[in-house]
Amino acid sequence: MPDRPPAHHLSRRERQIMDIVYRRGQATAADVLAALPDPPGYSAVRALLRVLEEKGHLRHEHQGPRYVFLPTVAPEQARRSALKGVVQTFFAGSAEQVVATLLDMRTKLSDDELDRLAQIIEQARKEERS
Q: What is the pLDDT along the chain (130 residues), one digit of tens a residue?
């Protein structure tokens, strides 16, 4: 498998297509075309899918006469990679600044969510001490 460039090196349209494929788990060119905002023509979508495959972000399987495209990286790994790029680019690698910014956005967190975050922090402390 070829080395994949980071997801943040994708064009806007390529990112949109990857978002669609990740949301659906798999997609045909027709699926992508139907889900894209302000979609280009069908042949342009097929060309973009081919480019994403050449870059190593997608692979395809034959299902009858159709190609079905699937991501080459598990969603969790893709999330981690994308977040790592954001943390490095906008927060100088500081997880503390990321969390502070998220909490400062005044997003309403439920008591359960706050409890889960406290558990995650406590687990990280235990792992650091080990």
A: 445 555 557 899 999 999 999 999 999 999 999 999 999 999 999 999 999 999 999 999 999 999 999 999 998 888 888 888 889 999 999 988 988 888 887 677 788 988 998 999 999 999 888 7
Residue with tokens 């790029």: 85
Q: Is the C-alpha dihedral spanning 14, 79, 96, 9 positive or negative?
A: negative
Q: Where are the domains of the chain?
A: 1-93
CATH of region 1-93, choose from 1.10.10.10, 3.40.50.720, 3.10.310.70, 3.40.50.2000: 1.10.10.10
Closest Cα partner for 15 from 119, 85, 113, 65? Answer: 85
